[in-house]
Specification:
Elements (H helix, E strand, L loop, with lengths): L1 H9 L5 E5 L2 H8 L7 E5 L3 E5 L4 H7 L4 E4 L7 H11 L4 E5 L5 H11 L7 E5 L2 H6 L4 H21 L9 H14 L10 E4 L20 E6 L2 E2 L2 E2 L2 E6 L5 H19 L7 H12 L13 E3 L6 E5 L12 E4 L2 E4 L3 E4 L2 E6 L2 E4 L8 E2 L1
Parallel strand pairs: 1-5, 3-4, 5-6, 11-19
Antiparallel strand pairs: 1-2, 2-3, 7-8, 8-11, 9-10, 12-13, 14-17, 15-16, 17-18
């Protein structure tokens, strides 16, 4: 259980406590999917603090927590935290510093500083995120379902590709197809770009119309049970030029080299280097993307972040993207991206859409 793992990692002393502020981390630890909540873990109890808007939902979802409904008119969050820390005789406290504003923390700190027994307060970063790095079987299944929705939606959307259609129109159609297939939301704002605009790695769909010879770059994902997929496919509308074919082959070879190098315990930097060996030794080296990929799960971009300085090892249950690309201003870009995971049976590719260069 995620909560047990965190308690073993952080709350390894009596009279200790931890505050969790991130909605994503709260959901990960408690399965509560609402907002306006804070988790306080002490050596004596698990508390989920919310208000009347989410109290009944939290009681139903967060079965391993003592759910407390704060009267917002008469009690501040800071004073409620103070009361619980005093009640459980807490002497040390850690808190998620990256998920709370300076003003909010100052209010809490001012209140709890009155507790004479609270002798240590420590800011921590990435404690829950480190646990999210390795996915359970059910988490991987959710990502795989999201990837399947994305694969099916892409195949359906390609029927709408025609001369004159706009980037925005196709992006809306793709989002609609994912929703119709059961995606809870889009994994992120869909990137769908034509021609020279495909050189924008994270470009926003525009009213640009499709014409023969254009590259079509599509980066998108679906969501199941809060877990996200992330896939990029690149096509050519009409007959591909020799240069388009050549660059596509370079990118595909670079991606395959990294995929072939994935094994338990491999460094992220090693995966990057396998891809870079191809792209950075080509005539297009100055146009190669700087990173190779990232973890994906409840958040689109999770640990590890795979690049030349990634010293994190890839382990079983770690879902990552592998997405090399070449982006040439004024010409266009080509990226190929898949979600992969190491299992007991070896590497599994979760995104299944065809990857050979397809001329639409």
């Amino acid at each position: 259980m995620n909560l047990t793992r965190l308690r073993e990692k952080i709350l390894n002393k009596s009279h200790s406590a931890m505050l969790i502020f991130s909605d994503i981390n709260i959901s990960y630890l408690s399965t509560f999917t609402g907002h306006a909540a804070t988790i306080l873990l002490t050596s004596k109890g698990n508390y989920l603090l919310t208000d009347y808007r989410y109290f009944e939902q939290a009681k139903t979802q967060a079965s391993h927590f003592n759910v407390i409904c704060r009267d917002r008119a008469n009690q501040s969050l800071a004073s409620l935290i103070e009361d619980l820390l005093f009640q459980d005789d807490c002497q040390s406290l850690s808190f998620e510093s990256e998920h709370i504003s300076v003003m909010q923390w100052q209010q809490i700190h001012q209140q709890i500083s009155q507790l004479t027994k609270l002798s240590q307060i420590e800011a921590v970063s990435g404690a829950v995120e480190a646990l999210r790095f390795i996915k359970s079987t059910s988490e991987i299944s959710s990502i795989e379902q999201a990837a399947k929705i994305a694969d099916t939606a892409l195949a359906a959307m390609l029927n709408s590709v025609k001369a004159g259609v706009t980037e925005r129109e196709l992006a809306i159609e793709l989002d609609y197809q994912m929703a119709k297939l059961g995606s809870e939301e889009v994994s992120f704002a869909t990137i769908l770009l034509f021609g020279e605009r495909s050189a924008l790695p994270h470009g926003i769909p525009s009213d640009k119309q499709l014409k023969l010879g254009d590259i079509i770059l599509i980066d998108f994902g679906a969501v199941v049970n809060g877990y996200r997929s992330d896939m990029t496919r690149t096509f050519v509308f009409g007959q591909a030029s020799a240069e388009q074919k050549h660059i596509y082959q370079l990118v595909q070879s670079a991606q395959q080299a990294a995929i072939d190098a994935v094994y338990e315990g491999v460094l992220g930097s090693h995966l990057y280097q396998q891809s870079a060996n191809i792209l950075l030794n080509s005539e297009y080296k100055k146009y190669a993307g700087e990173g190779l990929g990232h973890g994906v799960g409840l958040v689109l971009h999770e640990q590890p972040f795979i690049g030349p300085d990634c010293h994190t090892t890839i382990e079983k249950g770690c879902v990552i993207t592998i997405e090399p690309g070449i982006y040439i201003p004024g010409w266009g870009g080509i990226r190929i991206e898949d979600d992969v995971v190491l299992t007991d049976e070896g590497l599994k590719i979760l995104t299944k859409s065809p990857k050979g260069l397809i001329e639409l």
